[in-house]
Queue: 4 jobs
Job 1
Amino acid sequence: MIGLVTGANRGLGYEMVKEGLLRGHTMLAGCRKGADEAYARDLLEQKTKYPDSLLILEMDVINEEMVKGAAERVRQKYGHIDFLVNNAGVLFEKMVMPGDAVADLNVEMFRKTLDVNVTGTAIVLKYFIGLLYASEDACIMNITSEAGHLTPQGYNYLAYSVSKHAANMYTQKIRNYLAEEKADRHMRIYMIHPGRMDTIMGKENAQIPPSESALGLLDILDRKKQIPDMDVPFINYRGEPMPY
């Protein structure tokens, strides 16, 4: 299979690329700074091991022209992709921010979080959906979070939680569209809670290494784990349903 993973220079994105290559897939690694040596050192090491199976794409998910250009490059080289993992995301907040959560809101941080975590996901899918349509067994994974579901208590990670709830809603609307208007294509689409991973972004609340999450997600992509049809396809990296 041919698959694109965004935010692929580190953490979960890198581990998914690494595991995908081990499984024999052709992996497209979307990175904000492309193959910059300091930024993508680990990916460049993988490139030396798998020169014909790894393509590093310079792709800032909120830069529409850059994403459009990356999609055209993939179209010319491969003609299709079989899966897309929208993994690129940001978390600027600490678990509990100091001060008043309402009156002390950092508006610029709030806006940037929504831009990357929601709009970026939509931009990538806009330009790569045609390549997914060209696959015989396409799958879309939008990496969201358990932080995105509604809870009766707690206000931690305010901007991040809002963005992930919005990303879940976006995924659900696309799922509904595909089911109603593109049913003949039999595309799988999931919103994924990847687990509380020990990454730069998630270290404060970590429970698992990103490699464990990557293994589970590749098992879902490879159909080693069978996911039942769900009206709201929100699952974790083990393929288990998540509360919405």
Note: The mean pLDDT is 92.
Job 2
Amino acid sequence: MKIAAILLALPMAALASACATGSSGTAPASDAAAPVAHAKLLAADGSPRGDATVTQATDGLHVLVRAQGLTPGMHAVHIHGTGTCTPPDFTSAGGHWNPTGHKHGKDNPAGMHMGDMPNMIAGADGSGEMEYVIPGGTISGGATPLLDGDGAALVIHAQADDNKTDPAGNAGGRVACGALST
């Protein structure tokens, strides 16, 4: 009986230990005091297209985007430098967030904007999710604040970003936009 109890307790202890150690993924460690910005993503007609959360962590800004209602395939996702999303084309969000003055795209030898992020894949049902860490970014304050005087917005584009063409990666029109706020 004692052996059976021990054999039953070992897997349960291992499971509890695994749950308590946290994740080794890109999500930041839980910190109730960490600054967070949110955005509700909307299409030009005002219909919901998802949400975005940006959380300050020691290694930069952790971005989580959940989208729906997109055409299946690859979509560019960027943070734009103005926190305004006026339909129908969302050009009010301005260009990519670029406080360091670099060129566009991870494949561009001259830079990449801080607002450049990986493409997101929307599945056959039109939904997609992506996580990304923007090294060195801050929600507010410091040399590279996301929410400066004119704010910032998260934008999903109609097509994939080619990761090199300046200034916007040939990503097509803006199909969803959400102004970030705390």
Note: Helices lie at 2-20.
Job 3
Amino acid sequence: MANLSIRNLQKGFDGHQIIKGIDLDVKDREFVVFVGPSGCGKSTLLRLIAGLEEVTSGTIELDGRDITQVTPAKRDLAMVFQTYALYPHMTVGKNLSFALDLAGGDKAEIKKKVDEAARILELGPLLERKPKQLSGGQRQRVAIGRAIVRNPKIFLFDEPLSNLDAALRVQTRLELSRLHKELQATMIYVTHDQVEAMTLADKVVVLNGGKVEQVGSPLELYHHPANLFVAGFLGTPKMGFLKGKISRVDSASCEVELDAGTRINLPVNATGQSVGAPVTLGIRPEHLNLAQNGDCQLQVIADVSERLGSDTYCHVRTHSGEPLTLRIRGDLASQYGETLNLHLDSAHCHLFDAQGLVIAKALQTAAA
């Protein structure tokens, strides 16, 4: 078992609060990803869990045991850093066994653990090589192997893929996902890369300014963002936003008059909102379509097209200057300066109030 509980965790440096009262639960065998922009506190939070930073206030419990003041070596956690931190004069095998050798473990048991880690990570043929003879991806696997041999309760990863090139990042990301399933381990992973967060995590924790913005499964956060920050942070290309104001409200829908010069009826529960209240409409590229048969809701000016083969991303702007991106078939493209007529899929639009909080969809409210 490896259940982690964090309560009202705070960390300050020189009078500045970096972590601001975080509450979080990590369940046994979960793959939890901390994601957010630079400076949001995600690596600091991981270091607090590892014991590499002192907690200002709050508690960290592992399986009901308070480890807030316990030294890193006695927390039964293993951390894999962004830099591989391998011993250059040692072979791969010695790098894997070093911590266990230092602890004075049984040599036969150590060899068994090293061989098992090498099998899992396909490092068998590399055990006699030195780090300088390895590729970046192989070095990262050795760093992960050093954590595996310790058989920790929780694995901690601090942006482990950021030093790899694009192809290796994809390959190693798949290997980490497979590793999690094979070990059935609890893992906490820090990244600024939302693709890693979406593809690896059972649970995503979105951080901003030292606070948790939202916690949930990747698809829950993608389809049901709690606020403007989460909506704009998750998704590539990002969600487009249109400013407007409420022009009509009833129990199951509201009409929004957009600054871009059109009105749209949305199935949201806006009964707490007043006519004239400022709102922001959010829509993802896959829910913007080229208008057919006179169903135009929005006219835009084409800017740049990115042709990716299977899809084309058309970057456009409204007459009020707001940028949007739409995803269309790969065999289509727009011309710079061309006027395009768009249809917005109202069922997939998100509406946010003046404070940036989501206004719940009527169907969600009814289901609750």
Note: The chain has a mean pLDDT of 92.
Job 4
Amino acid sequence: MKSKDNAAGFGILAILILLVLLPLAAVLFQVVCPGLQIEKFDPSNLKLVLDVFVRPLWKKAFFNSFFLSIGTTVIGLLLAAFLAHVRVRYSFFGARFLDIVSWILMIVPSFILAQGWVYFASGNGIASAWLGIEGVGGFVFSYWGLVFVMVLCKYPLAYVTIKAAMEWYPSRLVHAARMNGASPFRAWLTVQLPLCIPAYCSAAMLIFMDTVGDYGMSSTITAVYSFPTLPYTIYSAICSSPVRFDMAGVLSFYLMIMIMIAMIIQYAAMGKRKFDFLDNGTEQVTPQRIGRIKSAALSAVTFCFCLAALGIPVGSNLIMSFSSSVSIQRFRFTLDNYAKVFQTGSQLLTGVKHSLSLAGVAAAIGIIIGFCVAYVLTYSLFKLKKVIDMMTLIAMAVPGVVLGIGYIFVWNQKWLTPLGLHLYGKPSILVLASVAAAIPLINRVLVGGMAKVPKSLLIAAQVQGAGFGRRMRTVLLPLLHGSVVSAVLAAFGGSVFNLAITTILYPPNYSTLPVYISDSYNDLKFGYAAAATIVGAAFIIGIMLILEYLMNLSRSGTNRPACAARSPRRNCAAETGRGDRFAGDSQTRP
């Protein structure tokens, strides 16, 4: 068993080195060897590492990213935990609407959301010019305003993770606590909450990493409010003349340092304790029906929240798509922008086609690799598990533009041409970069789910003669159905709208949807860019909703994994009559 764990671990490690470590090492090496030109190698450039606390721009970018990420993580985690608890525990009219809005916010790129907030809160924006609300711009374009906007943009990452972890209810442990005098709140605080620590830690890491490495939001907001962050400063260093490769390497190094510190905190919080609790005393949660007044109140609060999180940025883009002017104050209704989008020969459909194909391939490859990574981290005895975990986290922390630059350095070498591996300028490099960006998110979601499943279930199935494939199919995958669906959809949506990577790596005459929208926006065609955004996003979201429905069709048949773990050759339905209560047998899914 240990030899198999080592073989799988080294295989996963090799894949991650190729996808993640080599590109990032190429970028970091720019500090001492700008442009990877050996004749420019100068070890004395290492002193630049300390300049981040001396040079005003570097220092400001570092602390802006740090405090913005901390504020967003703390508030976003609290908000996501509250929403997930309400969604899982109670049945109300707006519950499904909250899920849909969260998924939309997860896949819509941050630069589009930021663009909508700029249209709404700027001096001549919708809030001031149309609604007569003063002071909105002063709040949004401040530190706490940016934290507010980032929380509304990033909370779905934590919401999906925590919600998937709350699907199972340790009824036997909770009943034991209640019988010993614990109140419902104390039972939740001392039993359920500690068992969900892996999910909360994963959720916090997702928010922190996505915030600290976000380029789209900071670049859009910076055009209105001077708030440089590390990703934006790195991009400026790469695009400046002359190109500052050393500056990009130093700032990327500090991004990784922040992630390592966050990982140390996560490991300290979890320690060496085990958090698996799925056994014959575990039930699947069924949302409780509540009174009409409470249901109406929850639904009203949910709709107001969704209006602020999604309605304002998307609505602002929608309004701009019907404008013939670049200013809201000079708004004139027109359908010309949509007419241009749908005209014959429009590049939008071509961009959508390319984005869908790339996202589909990246999600398929990413879920396979991500599942293997999560399995190795959770169940194997591989000694380098923490190295694998660190590499997956670093991939999410580094901005996509930096990862894209690293892929150029790695896959644009002349000696790769005879080997047929000169991938720069080909769609395959986009697939590799998209997979590298998707693996950390997939891994975090699946690790949070696997932490609930004890290894003893898999061992029991193995003792009964089930092979590895059968154990995965009849035990682990049914218990991880919600997490797998969440991971696939998140990877697919993130790959479709990955602006940074596609902007850097897209081949000539191979435009993608985010590049198409960004080019139109940069050409000051705001109305046309907004129309393309609305049409493209609606099309992609529709496809994702259909995909989610298809993936959940077989969900009702995955509710008896514990019986399969005990005896994969026996019928679970025949065992339920003996009085045993196994995970998934006592209740059906809502």
Note: Residues 557-590 have pLDDT under 50 and may be disordered.
